[in-house]
């Protein structure tokens, strides 16, 4: 049986295809301004017995081609538990949402916390700040990692933080210190969200921001434990959706 | 709706802006309320009242005033309706539940103030609320700093009387509140030029208690599982109770309850199979704020009870009918209103106990806490509510939002994740 999971996020869309229980294909594309068209392109010439969609665009998918939908909370729990069966806590920093999820030994969601309505402390926040610093996302992570010291960024609102960064640049603060400060600020946010669901080992870090080496380093230091990172952290939601499709019949 | 344009014009409404508002309501009502399946017939009355929201009821107010009666507007469950009725007046709740003229309101109010207050001033500035324009007196109360200071601004447009609500429930507070109830009585007497006598007050106490008894009867029926009425319909009735004629409303609610009992006996339920039962707790939801109940119920759960001012907090306590003289009745009224467990009180243990009681009595699977952004009392008290519920292992979802629609997607994800969590929980047990 061939099933698929589609995670339509605010920044990227991921497709995971499973053939008789093993992943046979996966791909990640940008969401752009026309997610439906991007989905159609991803799904072109592909045929599935069951397609489950997740992510903020899941209802759009359901109205058009998906058979079922699940929330990204459940999808990440399923996906992380599949990759790391010993996973009890998940941190997912995605494009517009940050989630802390507590899961049971058999991979069920026990509790979850998400950021407030604004994009403070999410991937989008990092993107806006990178552009304020004239760096690419990847460069910013590397620059922050190499920084000796940091400046305190007190605002987590994307708009206010950008003004704060502009102010720091105007005062001649070196870019690496600002970049490091921004990472520390997100790390604080994520750690407090995690503490609200309780941090139990093992802790899996997924979502696009998990690819950022500085964020991984800071979180491990802050939480005092190693993080498990999926090989491709951006497809975990889609994998969870595919697993839900596999198990639903 | 028949033609009320002349009436609206005489009330000083901005007809063009008002048309715009009235265009938005019917499709929203269709989508949120009328589209529900298998609704009881008794909801027809409330659909009618809603369809005439700026029509027939306003006409009744205009006619009442033409005959020398007064109309008094309130913003909170703490203002004793009994006094207004005993003074020969009609009491209407003016809380606003839609984003109207926010930019205009922000010329007077700070941006980081709750939607409820901003919207209230927005309606006034945009001249689109026939209720506030029909009022001879507005009665405010010092429930929170935002409202307290807002009433000073509102007073520039219309006469406002502010009741000082104590924030503790000790004997000194009771003494203050009893005197505040009497001060309101005097203000109403000044307004009408007539004394409030004991017989009309006794009658008013009965009338308002009857309304509460009817709403309590409906609340009792919401314990039914499978459900006989949706959370959205129950909320609509509560919202209408704030401005409809109290006697007529009690009659219609009782008729609806009769029908619900009959339907339950015949095995007619809304929704059929078991749905997760949610208690909504927190800030009030004024018409047409159905955002969260619609998300919850469209996601497959049921709002089984509302621990809000537009829910059971509005009608939970009755005024004692034992007093024989005017003074005794005024004290009984004051004491009843002081029992309300709004989050402005400290300590507010009663509210925590009541939430736990509702969780038990209504077989609640999860509590969804509705916090209006920037509402200090309810956002801060959420911590204690969560703490209390965690002890009992009751899932708790805190949602902070406002009157805008832009966060519907994010709210839906949170609510649906909660429902998935409840389903796997019950599926495995």
Protein traits:
A: about 250 residues; Nucleotidyltransferase, domain 5; five-stranded mixed beta sheet; 9 helices; B: alpha/beta; four-stranded parallel beta sheet; about 55% helix
Structural notes for this entry:
- The complex is a heterodimer of chains A (249) and B (429).
- Chain A has helices spanning 35-43, 58-64, 72-83, 123-132, 137-145, 158-170, 175-197, 213-223, 236-247, and strands at residues 2-8, 12-19, 22-30, 50-54, 68-69, 89-93, 98-103, 109-114, 203-206, 227-228.
- Chain A is α/β, with parallel strands linked by helices and 249 residues long.
- Chain A has two domains: 1-84 and 230-249, Nucleotidyltransferase, domain 5; 87-229, ATPase, nucleotide binding domain (Nucleotidyltransferase, domain 5, 2-Layer Sandwich), CATH 3.30.420.
- In chain A, the strands form two sheets. A five-stranded mixed beta sheet of chain A has the order 3-2-1-4-5. In chain A, strands 8-7-6-9-10 form a five-stranded mixed beta sheet.
- In chain A, strand 2 and strand 3 form a beta hairpin.
- The longest helix of chain A is centred in the C-terminal third of the chain and has 23 residues, at 175-197.
- Chain A is globular and about 60 Å long.
- The N and C termini of chain A lie close together (10 Å).
- By secondary structure, chain B is α/β, with parallel strands linked by helices.
- In chain B, 54% of the residues lie in helices and 10% in strands.
- Chain B contains 18 helices and eight strands.
- In chain B, the strands form two sheets. A four-stranded parallel beta sheet of chain B has the order 2-1-3-4, sandwiched between helices. In chain B, strands 6-5-7-8 form a four-stranded parallel beta sheet, with helices on both faces.
- Chain B is globular, with a radius of gyration of 21 Å.
- The mean pLDDT of chain B is 95.
- Chain A binds chain B through residues 56, 59, 70-74, 96-97, 108-112, 114, 116-117, and chain B through 395, 400-401, 407, 409-410, 412-414, 416-417, 420-421, 424-425, 428.
């Amino acid at each position: 049986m061939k099933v698929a999971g589609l995670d339509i996020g605010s920044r990227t869309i991921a497709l995971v295809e499973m053939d008789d229980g093993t992943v046979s294909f996966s791909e990640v594309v940008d969401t752009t301004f026309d997610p439906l068209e991007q989905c159609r392109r991803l799904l072109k010439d592909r045929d599935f017995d069951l397609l489950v969609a997740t992510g903020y665009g899941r209802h759009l998918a359901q109205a058009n081609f998906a058979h079922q939908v699940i929330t990204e909370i459940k999808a990440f729990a399923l996906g992380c538990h599949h990759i790391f069966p010993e996973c009890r806590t998940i941190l997912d920093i995605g494009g517009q949402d940050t989630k802390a999820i507590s899961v049971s030994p058999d991979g069920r969601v026990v509790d979850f916390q998400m950021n407030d309505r604004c994009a403070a402390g999410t991937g989008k926040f990092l993107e806006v700040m990178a552009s304020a610093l004239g760096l690419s996302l990847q460069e910013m992570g590397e620059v922050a990692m190499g920084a000796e010291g940091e400046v305190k960024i007190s605002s987590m609102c994307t708009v206010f933080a950008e003004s704060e960064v502009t102010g720091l640049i105007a005062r001649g603060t070196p870019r690496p210190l600002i970049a490091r400060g921004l990472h520390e600020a997100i790390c604080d946010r994520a750690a407090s969200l995690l503490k609200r669901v309780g941090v139990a080992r093992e802790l899996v870090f997924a979502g696009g921001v998990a690819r950022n080496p500085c964020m991984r380093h800071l979180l491990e230091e802050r939480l005092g434990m190693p993080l498990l990172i999926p090989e491709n952290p951006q497809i975990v939601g889609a994998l969870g959706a595919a697993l839900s499709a596999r198990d639903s019949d | 709706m028949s033609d009320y344009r002349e009436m609206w014009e005489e009330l000083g409404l901005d007809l063009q802006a008002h048309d715009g508002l009235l265009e938005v309501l019917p499709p929203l009502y269709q989508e949120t309320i009328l589209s529900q399946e298998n609704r009881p017939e008794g909801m027809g009355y409330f659909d009618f009242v809603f369809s005439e929201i700026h029509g027939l009821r306003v006409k009744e107010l205009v006619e009442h005033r033409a005959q020398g009666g007064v109309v008094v507007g309130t913003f909170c469950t703490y203002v004793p309706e009994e006094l207004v009725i005993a003074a020969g007046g009609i009491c209407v709740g003016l809380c606003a539940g839609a984003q109207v003229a926010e930019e205009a309101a922000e010329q007077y109010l700070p941006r980081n103030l709750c939607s409820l207050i901003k919207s209230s001033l927005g309606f006034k500035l945009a001249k689109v609320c026939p209720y506030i324009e029909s009022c001879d007196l507005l009665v405010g109360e010092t429930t929170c700093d935002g409202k307290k200071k807002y009433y000073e601004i509102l007073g520039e447009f219309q006469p406002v009387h502010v009741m000082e609500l104590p924030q503790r429930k000790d004997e000194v507070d009771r003494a203050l509140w009893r005197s505040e109830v009497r001060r309101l009585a005097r203000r109403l007497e000044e307004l009408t030029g007539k004394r409030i006598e004991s017989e009309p007050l006794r009658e008013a106490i009965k009338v308002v208690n009857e309304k509460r008894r009817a709403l309590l009867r409906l609340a009792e029926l919401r314990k039914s599982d499978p459900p006989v009425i949706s959370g959205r319909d129950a909320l609509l009735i509560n919202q209408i109770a704030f401005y409809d004629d109290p006697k007529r409303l009690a009659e219609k609610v009782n008729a609806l309850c009769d029908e619900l009992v009959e339907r339950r006996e015949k095995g007619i339920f809304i929704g059929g199979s078991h749905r997760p039962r949610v208690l909504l707790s927190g800030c009030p939801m004024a018409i047409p704020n159905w955002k969260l109940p619609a998300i919850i119920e469209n996601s497959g759960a049921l709002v089984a009870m509302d621990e809000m001012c537009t829910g059971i907090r509005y009608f939970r306590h009755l005024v004692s009918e034992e007093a024989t003289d005017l003074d005794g009745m005024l004290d009984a009224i004051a004491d009843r209103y002081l029992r309300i467990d709004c989050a402005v009180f400290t300590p507010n243990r009663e509210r925590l106990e009541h939430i736990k009681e509702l969780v038990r009595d209504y077989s609640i699977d999860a509590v969804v806490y509705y916090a209006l952004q920037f509402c200090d009392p309810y956002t801060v008290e959420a911590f204690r509510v969560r703490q209390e519920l965690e002890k009992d292992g009751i899932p708790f979802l805190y949602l902070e939002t406002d009157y805008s629609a832009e966060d519907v997607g994010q709210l839906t994800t949170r609510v649906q994740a909660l429902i998935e969590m409840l389903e796997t929980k019950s599926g495995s047990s």
